[in-house]
From TrEMBL:
Keywords: 2Fe-2S, Iron, Iron-sulfur, Metal-binding. The gene is LOC109468703. The keyword Mitochondrion does not apply. This is Rieske domain-containing protein-like. The keyword rRNA-binding does not apply. InterPro entries: Rieske_2Fe-2S (IPR017941), Rieske_2Fe-2S_sf (IPR036922), Sol_Rieske_ferrdox_dom (IPR054716). It holds the Pfam family Rieske_4. GO terms for molecular function: 2 iron, 2 sulfur cluster binding; metal ion binding.
Length: 132
């Protein structure tokens, strides 16, 4: 468990807001997963892996807080969207925009040295952290 914790808490030197969320090989096995923010559920991130690329959006839908990490992923002309499972709003994974006018916060993602990093304000965890 300690080694896993270390793999998630390895920000790039000099840039404290790049958060290491885990190894590329592990994270690309799922098209979508929820990353749990240390700051609380309202800050959770949905990490997507489609078209050989990672995308990160706020995990709760801007309309009614539906779980985007449980939504369907669709592709049209090389553009990927996630469909909210509650009311079927679609959000572009690259921009966070919806044709409805709603918008999800997006986060920068990079791969470096076999790990995935997200530019984010607090630590992100693969499992829900225990609250004390």
């Amino acid at each position: 468990m300690a080694a896993e914790a270390d793999s998630r808490r390895c920000p790039e030197p000099g840039v404290s807001d790049w958060r290491c969320v885990g190894p590329v090989e592990q994270l690309r096995k799922q098209k979508c997963r929820r990353l749990y923010a240390e700051a609380g559920r309202s800050q959770d991130v949905a990490l997507f892996y489609v078209g050989e690329k990672f995308y990160a959006l706020e995990a709760s839908c801007a309309h009614a807080e539906g779980p985007l990490d449980q939504g369907d992923i669709e592709e049209l002309n090389g553009c990927y969207t996630v469909v909210c499972p509650l009311h079927f709003y679609e959000f572009d994974l690259s921009t966070g925009k919806s044709e409805s006018g709603l918008r999800q916060q997006t986060y920068e993602v990079k791969q470096e040295d076999g790990k995935v990093y997200i530019k984010f304000s607090c630590e992100l965890h693969l499992r829900r952290p225990e609250r004390k």
